[in-house]
UniProtKB/TrEMBL annotation:
Species of provenance: Citrus clementina
InterPro entries: Cyt_P450, Cyt_P450_CS, Cyt_P450_E_grp-I, Cyt_P450_sf
TM region positions: 6-25
Protein known as: Cytochrome P450
Taxonomy, superkingdom: Eukaryota
Pfam families: p450
UniProt keyword Heme, yes or no: yes
The keyword Oxidoreductase is annotated on this UniProt entry: yes
GO molecular function, one term: oxidoreductase activity, acting on paired donors, with incorporation or reduction of molecular oxygen
Co-factor(s): heme
One GO CC annotation: membrane
């Protein structure tokens, strides 16, 4: 027994001294040329400084330590860029050194060994998929082909709101919006399946939510070197279960698609791809394709689109509505604009958006203060010098989009919600969202910027416009009129408290239905 205790004491002495030697060695080897850094703790590094909401905590640190900070999350070296100037250095001047994304154990497992697009290293496969996204999968022609899907789903959502309004029932706005965007993405990627069957749609939604949660969870195995092979938090079992369910669903849908394609071929019917899965299957069967898409690539790509494309757009609409409820003058102005362009006898459509500059400015201002990708994460692929500091290869890079979008050196009264800042003198909406201006990068910037920007803007504008055109929104809870704007925790900047409202019908553009 005494011997055993002795071994335990020896083990702890060894552990503590190893940690100290590692941290001293790490410091003396690197501190001179790295960006400023707060004091780190052994083992966890600066992890304790990131709570409760990382982008907010990092913003506070940057006020004290400057726009480029060096941190250790556990034993992983990181830098954080919190100003437009440092973001430009990383995203433009030295772009090619920062085109990779770090891959966690959970992401690697969920994406079939990083067979996806969002986390693929910057190389031939990523370039092939990016081109495909921009020209086919998420390109203008495909998005036009799917206009009926988006209008039908908005129509279904509005019918539900009408029903709630009639019964004076409260709605969890965010939850219903996620249902809407999930239906749109499901139908675009895999066809009718999910929208016909509500139970199936709910299952997909739960699966996507759990995937996002697991991918975003802090996993000790990724950050603490001696936990690398120990699953102390028990994530392994949950990951296996989620991937098993997702894989079963995808295999079933893939088989259905393949059978339908076979019948089409046999009967010699005219064939046009119906959804993204069809397009991906076409490419995977194309012998002359420069890259052969595997079944894993296809499944992982679909997962990417769900994970990146559903919550982000839904939560943006929820934040925009919350801001409008708190700013009745802006609600009135947006409504007047919609009424004057669209009238009161039909529902606003995607094609109207171009004529609604105030609505566009409103969405831009929402994306400035509430960017649903609050931090863009990259990894350096080679040694690089930024602002005179040496950034070693394999350093994790956080671009704090949330902090940059409210930088007081670039924005007047940055914390105020003011869509007018996006209206040019000629009355048109100004300042593009696509990463050309480094003080406003809600969709990131450069080669790895968001490929879903156009789809997201279509969804956000038309859903929000329809909600404003047809309903007043009476807030339940809080003080009854003002909505609490506290941020919650999560990868996509969710609200801390759900937005619960009773819709009150203002105009009903579906009188006969
Ligand atoms: C309001 C909605 C959205 C916001 C705010 C948003 C924001 C972002 C941001 C900040 C990034 C990282 C960019 C970078 O590293 O520079 C990103 C990447 C990405 N987004 Fe979006 N996004 C939205 C909607 C969508 C939609 C609708 C889709 C697809 C259907 C999508 C697909 C992706 C993909 C695949 C990536 C990874 C790209 C790559 O690694 O090359 N996003 N998004």
């Amino acid at each position: 027994m005494v011997d055993f205790r002795g071994y335990i004491v020896l083990f702890f002495v060894w552990l503590v001294s190893t940690i100290l030697v590692r941290s001293i060695f790490r410091r003396s080897k690197t501190t001179s040329s790295l960006p400023p850094s707060p004091m780190a703790l052994p083992i966890i590094g600066h992890l304790h400084l990131l709570a409760p909401i990382p982008h907010q905590a990092l913003h506070k640190l940057s006020i004290r330590y400057g726009p480029l900070i060096h941190l250790f999350i556990g034993s992983v070296p990181c830098i954080v860029a919190c100003s437009p100037e440092t973001a430009k250095e990383i995203l433009k001047t030295h772009e090619t050194s920062f085109c990779d994304r770090p891959i966690s154990a959970a992401v690697d497992y969920l994406t079939y060994g990083s067979a996806d697009f969002s986390f693929a290293p910057y190389g031939p496969y990523w370039k092939f998929m990016k081109k495909l996204c921009m020209t086919q999968l998420l390109g203008g022609q495909t998005l036009n082909q799917f206009i009926p899907i988006r209008s039908e789903e908005i129509w279904r959502f509005m019918q539900l709101m009408l029903k709630k309004a009639k019964a004076s029932e409260a709605v969890d706005v965010g939850k219903e919006l996620i249902r809407l965007t999930n239906n749109v993405v499901s139908r675009m990627t895999m066809g009718q399946i999910c929208s016909i069957n509500d139970k199936e749609a709910d299952e997909v939604r739960k699966l996507v939510q759990e995937t996002a949660e697991l991918a975003g969870k802090f996993n000790l195995q990724d950050y603490i070197w001696f936990c690398k092979n120990i699953d102390l938090q028990g994530f392994g079992k949950r990951l296996k279960e989620v991937r098993r369910k997702f894989d079963n669903m995808m295999e079933r849908i893939l088989k259905e698609h393949q059978e339908a394609r076979k019948i089409n071929k046999e009967t010699g019917k005219d064939y046009a791809p119906m959804d993204l899965l069809d397009m991906l299957l076409d490419i995977s069967e194309d012998e002359s394709s420069e890259i052969k898409l595997t079944r894993e690539n296809i499944k992982a790509f679909i997962l990417d689109i769900f994970a990146a494309g559903t919550d982000t757009s839904a939560i943006t609409v929820e934040w925009a509505l919350a801001e409008l409820i708190n700013h009745p003058d802006m609600m009135k102005k947006t409504r007047e604009e919609i009424d004057s362009v669209v009238g009161k006898s039909r529902l606003v459509e995607e094609s109207d958006i171009i004529n609604l500059p105030y609505l566009q400015a409103l969405v831009k201002e929402t994306l400035r203060l509430h960017p649903t990708g609050p931090m863009s994460v990259r990894e350096s692929t080679e040694n690089c010098t930024i602002n005179g500091y040496e950034i070693p290869a394999r350093t994790r890079v956080f671009i704090n989009v949330w902090a940059i979008n409210r930088d007081p050196n670039h924005w007047e009264t940055p914390l105020e919600f003011c869509p007018e800042r996006f209206i040019a003198e000629d009355g048109k909406s100004q300042l593009d969202v696509r990463g050309q201006h480094y003080h406003y990068i809600p969709f990131g910037s450069g080669r790895r910027a968001c490929p879903g920007t156009t789809l997201a803007l279509h969804m956000v504008h038309s859903t929000l416009a329809a909600m404003i055109q047809c309903f007043d929104w009476e807030v339940i809870g809080g003080n009854g009129t003002r909505v609490d704007m506290e941020e919650g925790t999560g990868l996509t900047l969710p609200r801390a408290h759900p937005l619960i409202c009773v819709p009150i019908t203002r105009i009903n553009p579906f009188p006969l239905s």
